[in-house]
Design brief:
Layout lengths: L1 H7 L7 H5 L3 H8 L1 H15 L10
Length: 57
Amino acid sequence: MDLMEEILSRVPVKSIGAVRSTCRNWNALSKDQSFVNKHIDKAVIKRNGGSCDHGEL
């Protein structure tokens, strides 16, 4: 599950809807709070050019 979570955490936010309809496991993962947090953290890091300034990572 870790590899799948890592891969899906890199999917753009706009594509998460398509991911959720792909299979039940991916749908459940996309609703998991730890996955959501990882996805948000990766988006923040990408937006900041590779650095995280909110102190959680």
